[in-house]
Amino acid sequence: LWNVLLSFSGLVALIQLLFLPFFPESPPYLLLQKGDKKGCLEAMKQLWGEGNYHTEFDDMLKEKAATKGTKIMNVLEVLKDPSVRQQLSIMLLLLLSLQLCGLSAITFYTSEIFRTANLQESIIPYVSLGVGISELFSITLCSSIIDRFGRRILLWGGYVLMALILALLEISLLL
Fold it and tell me: What spatial distance separates the first Cα and last Cα of the chain, rounded to whole Å?
């Protein structure tokens, strides 16, 4: 029944396409991008029900005023802009390190890894599920502690821990 499983995402997309026209545009989009104050208030009422949304509306007007002089840039302009080059470099480094840390390989080859480790074929799906649950748990845990400790300390700690584990792995392979 793999074809039914794969078609499930198509079913969800079809449901979204059917119901999406009945939902209003995002209030910030209507106000900030389109400049439609009346449409923004109507969208707020439709999404959030009747009420007084002047505080939220005023916050959006302040945001619009703060971004009034800024130009919306396309991807090529962002890549050429020297003022964001450092941020782009850091983001690229983080994305590359995520690709090189091995999580994608573990996720893709989990069943083969466990077969090679001579686990019983009947328990491999459960162990694979356990790996996925542990990834979910670690993502949830990391997301909750980022605000407490700060991103810099967690990134450095993660990289140091990865380097130590890789060094221990290399030493164990050599021995």
Answer: 46
Residues 6+ apart with CB under 8 A from 106: 113, 131
> Two tokens at 143?
């997301």
Give whole-number Cα distances, 116 to 61, 109, 111, 120, 121, in Å. 60, 11, 9, 10, 11
Amino acid symbol at 127: V
Q: Residue 127 pLDDT more than 80?
A: yes
Helical pair 37-48 and 54-66, crossing angle rounded to 10 deg? 140
In angstroms, rounded to a whole number, what is the distance separating the alpha carbons of residues 172 and 148?
Answer: 35
Q: What share of the chain is helix, strand, coil (3-state, %, to 5)?
A: 80, 0, 20
Q: What angle do CA 103, 106, 111 make, to 5 degrees?
A: 160
Overall residue count recorded for the chain in this entry: 175
pLDDT band at 103 (very low <50, low <70, confident <90, very high): confident
Q: What's the pLDDT tens digit per position in 145-159?
A: 876 777 777 777 777
pTM over 0.70: no
Burial class, 36, CB count within 10 angstroms (exposed 0-12 / middle 13-18 / buried 19+)? middle
Structure tokens at 13: 């997309």
